[in-house]
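Encode chain A's predicted structure.
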Amino acid sequence: MGGDQGKWISTLARNKKNIYYQKSGDGYQISWANMRKFPLTNAQISKILDTYFVVSGQWYLLGPKEDDPAPGGFGEFLQMTFSISPRYASVIAAVLVDLGYLESQGKSPVLLRKISP
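Encoded structure for chain A:
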């Protein structure tokens, strides 16, 4: 993604290009469906990769259900660590996959793992 130009991507479970993100200052600005923009900072990305996706090669559950996030899933981690609704796990994971930090497998459930540097 060169410069400030943004990019349209899909969530990992659906093939709808309804996520838009672009580089912005210390991270990214993300828009999803009809929701307002929200930031994903480089510090948050580092914390996600270093605290949640600890073991490279291990698969982790996405778990984005807002009212009942999967115990130990990425959605629950976002809720407990950043006070972000678990539903944003779908969006943040898609961005991290597109940026090359994570890879995904499956559609239901979606599994994620960190790509080794």
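The chain has a mean pLDDT of 91.
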